[in-house]
């Protein structure tokens, strides 16, 4: 008689623990990492006419989620040493319609986030950290997923941390974004109306 146990009480505990693990205030458990990217883009109101900068050196979902949102993926080159995008490679492909950057922390090697966040602040651009391969990674002492506006995580069977098949999470320090992502995850429901 535990129909809602895994999506209810146990899931809320996991979200709280994972938010603490990633040094963020909020987390929302989801079906997989692709859904995490989809929900992140939706929460940021990314859609038709928007450009989102991403690397091609990643799993397909990092770019396909942009297309699913109705936006345009714009591919930035990677640095030779890290195989990650950087402020330099992002600036080379910025457009007037750039609304977000997806920073993929490839194989646990995080993007150089300080210059990217500075650029994002200068241009009013959102940053999504794709942490599918970065559970436990640190950048200058800061946890992966705690630097950008939203982070998307995967717990697929071949990831660093798995939930036994599929699974995903979004994390954020922004309460408004968290509430939007929670609502998208649970059929438009409000977290407060259910749990408070």
UniProtKB/TrEMBL annotation:
Cited Pfam families: DegT_DnrJ_EryC1
Coiled coil: none
GO MF term set: transaminase activity
Matches recorded under InterPro entries: DegT/StrS_aminotransferase, PyrdxlP-dep_Trfase, PyrdxlP-dep_Trfase_major
UniProt keyword annotations, A-Z: Aminotransferase, Pyridoxal phosphate, Transferase
Residue stretches spanning the membrane: none
Superkingdom assignment: Bacteria
Family to which the UniProt record says this protein belongs: Belongs to the DegT/DnrJ/EryC1 family.
The protein's name in its UniProt record: DegT/DnrJ/EryC1/StrS family aminotransferase
